[in-house]
Write a structure and sequence with these properties.
Layout (H helix, E strand, L loop, with lengths): L1 H47 L11 E2 L3 E9 L5 E11 L4 E8 H6 L6 E4 L2 E12 L4 E5 L4 H4 L12 E10 L2 E10 L6 H4 L1
Length: 193
């Protein structure tokens, strides 16, 4: 009877210890997820601010991917015009990124994409633009350069800003993070006059 009492107390103590350990593990992992999101958005902001205008490289955007021209370090160690491509892999629940220099683009080569954020359940990109016909700024879900026109034939037309909404899985919950970044080299309607 004493042995049964001791075993019961030890079993209860082990159960409490395991429960406390799991609680601490969940808290630590939730902090890591938030830190990962903050680091991701910081890098995203820096890259958007480095977008360039380059005649043969166009800005492209959909609701869960976009590509933008920028100067990148090539596989040969040189700095060349190229593209950064962000896209959501919904099968794996990850945001991935790839850099493609101009030579790789024209040769049709596709470098391997790197995972930059995990535990993602949804991603949505939107693009800010001045609608010249209605003289208002609008958010677009897809970037179609031909639909909105080109400033001139030698220059690519860029959105004024890109907004990214990322939904991350945190246990059974989902948390939305939103970041809007202006593109410094984009010409606004006011600058064109």
């Amino acid at each position: 009877m004493i042995v049964a009492g001791i075993i019961s107390v030890v079993g209860l103590a082990l159960g409490v210890a395991v429960n406390n350990g799991l609680t601490i593990w969940e808290r630590v992992n939730s902090m890591v997820l938030e830190e990962d999101a903050a680091i991701f958005f910081s890098k995203f902001t820096n890259e958007i601010k480095n977008v360039i205008q380059y005649k043969d490289l166009k800005f492209e955007g959909g609701d869960n991917m976009f590509s933008a021209p920028m100067l990148i370090n090539s596989f040969e160690g040189r700095v060349l015009p190229g593209k950064v491509i962000y896209f959501f892999d919904d099968r794996e629940g990850r945001i991935k990124k790839r850099y493609v220099d101009m030579f790789q683009l024209f040769q049709g080569k596709t470098p391997e994409a790197k995972t930059i954020l995990e535990n993602v359940s949804d991603v949505k990109f939107t693009y800010y633009l001045f609608d010249r016909q209605n003289e208002v700024y609008v958010w677009l879900e897809e970037w179609k350069e031909d639909e909105w026109g080109v400033v001139n034939e030698d220059e690519n037309f860029l959105p004024s800003a890109v907004r990214m909404k990322v939904t991350l899985k945190k246990g059974r919950d989902e948390i939305d993070y939103v970041k809007t970044v202006n593109i410094p080299v984009a010409k606004t309607e006011f600058e064109g006059k």
